[in-house]
Predict the structure.
Amino acid sequence: MKPLFSPSLRLDRMQSSPLWTGAGFRNRHPILKGLRDASASFPSLRDVLLPKGERLPPGPLPSCSPLDDWLRPASSGLRATWLGHSTVLIEIDGRRVLTDPVWGLRASPMRWAGPRRFQPVPVALDKLPPLDAVLISHDHYDHLDAFTIRRLARLQPEVPFVTALGVGARLEAWGVPSGRVFELDWWQGWQLPRGELAVHAAPSQHFSGRGLQDRNHTLWSSLVIESPRHRVFFSGDTGLTTEYGAIRARFGAFDLVLLEVGAFHPAWGDMHLGPRHALEALELLGGGAFLPVHWGTFALALHDWDQPVETLLTLPLPERAQLLLPRLGQAVEPAHGSAPEPWWRAAGRSAPEIPAVAGPGPAPHPATAQAPAASWPLD
């Protein structure tokens, strides 16, 4: 897929997509029965301002620095480092890919309000190794952060950004040259010149928008990352959809599957998986090593901060599946994965090893305070 060089070409490609309705993008398949609870109300302003339960951990989560591990190649050829929420550094046969990078302080359109990061990123943005691609699944604030994109564009001036249709306009506005932006429709792909790394956009069931008047103006997608030896699936944000079976049929089995498990709520059960539906999605994808993401960083729903992974520990895995629960910053190879341990239960017992590096504003880690949030769902 060639980069886009003009707004008119971008608009032409968006409007020629089979997912374009004339006013925005749409999900392809009808919502599966039972995903959304029609009787459930969206969280009220009071819910946001006065959260109940344990939406925030008692203190910093255990974390470690991946810098020493990143100096050595992965012995199996495939390694992943979860850096918080949906940000993962994937090392795949000598190439490095970063998913949905967010180092910012808030997942919000406002610097002074909205969901505030309760967990620092375990490595500074300027300590990342050279990247071969940055992947952006969609434009929501907890997946696309202006501060992070601006810094990455300066720190790694040659890295390509691969994203969904329409999202590239924001990347270019934040300093990414148009020649480094590659936008994909579902089932389209991009690859490095010698074919040693390929990225494909695939279906997800979600929505987009960063304000009150741009709902679904850009596309959302899951992403498949391939090398000649390994294949990785990254869900981005999604509800449960039978299209995961179509993804498996097209690409085959996956060596590593990154699925979102947090920020679920009955009122938007069609737009986020949650732990139970994540396991159903994993089964549709054919199993594989499963690394849960989209938790442990921002309080974006009303469930307890650790409920997604605590629930996963109680549920049976599909056949041919392996659960990976690495600590923040822990580089893990699926081929050498160990039995999951509830390391997050030690939250607050010690300070994180790496100081926070976030966006403009005061240093993060407000483990005892939450600012007012904007209208939900933000992601």
Observations:
- The two ends are 27 Å apart (CA to CA).
- Residues 351-376 have pLDDT under 50 and may be disordered.
